[in-house]
Design brief:
The protein is of the alpha+beta class. It has 6 helices and 17 strands. The strands form 4 sheets. A 6-stranded mixed sheet has the order 2-1-13-6-7-10. A hairpin with a 2-residue loop joins strand 15 and strand 16.
């Protein structure tokens, strides 16, 4: 999976794509898919070390099904589901780490919140999952635990906007390139982690865990000069 980090030109993330997650964050339900970007430098490959929590950051987890692009898409017709699904190379499980207090401040002040999503190690991913291991990405179960306590466990059939619609919305604005990564949204149950916590995540198809989709990663404090202060 380190190859995915090396090859991905961008990571595109669909926001607010599960109704219960929208409710738990007291957010507005979107009328169409909206998205934001994470830098490829935030990708943390399997066995790549811990997630690093910057000083002063309230760190949240969000488990997601990630799509790896096989070929480029531009200006996709949202009705062309066949073309959308043919553009998929495979999948992985991802944890979209978020500096929630940084994001909340930025939202309240009308500022960009790239920093809240973009720190190094803020996107742990599983091994690559071949496409045939997930015959229907809209009918799998995503789960995440913290210290062996299950925090997220829901089906992708609860997505508000399915993957072809996501691809269409993104590709009408920017080309989706080969090896780009698309995060398809997180279900309810997001919450905080502290240094010393261990996150585990995965995906089940017909009730059975997909071995390549397992993540196990520890949280540690980040050194360096950054410390969250009000903007």
């Amino acid at each position: 999976m380190s190859a995915i980090k090396a090859k991905a030109r961008k990571v595109v993330c669909i926001g607010r794509n599960y109704a219960d997650h929208i409710t738990e964050l007291n957010s507005a339900r979107p009328k169409k898919p909206f998205f934001f970007l994470k830098p490829p430098s935030s990708i943390l490959p399997p066995n790549g070390g811990p997630v690093l929590r910057p000083k002063g950051v309230k760190l949240h987890y969000e488990v997601e099904l990630a799509v790896i692009m096989r070929k480029s898409l531009q200006d996709l017709d949202p009705q062309d589901e066949e073309k959308a699904m043919e553009a998929i190379s495979g999948y992985c499980v991802a944890i979209d780490m978020t500096a929630r207090n940084v994001q909340d401040e930025a939202k309240n002040k009308g500022l960009p919140w790239s920093i809240a999503k973009g720190f190094d190690t803020f996107l742990p991913i599983s091994e690559y999952i071949p496409k045939d291991k997930i015959p229907d990405p809209h009918n799998v179960e995503l789960w995440l635990s913290v210290n062996d306590k299950v925090k997220q466990n829901d089906s992708t059939n609860l997505m508000l906007f399915r993957i072809p619609r996501q691809f269409a919305e993104i590709s009408q604005c920017m080309t989706l390139d080969e090896s780009d990564v698309v995060l398809t949204g997180t279900p309810k149950g997001v919450g905080s982690v502290e240094a010393g916590d261990v996150m585990r995540a995965g995906v089940r198809v017909d009730g059975k865990d997909v071995q390549q989709g397992r993540i196990q990663v520890k949280v540690e404090e980040k050194g360096g000069l950054y410390e969250y202060k009000e903007t």
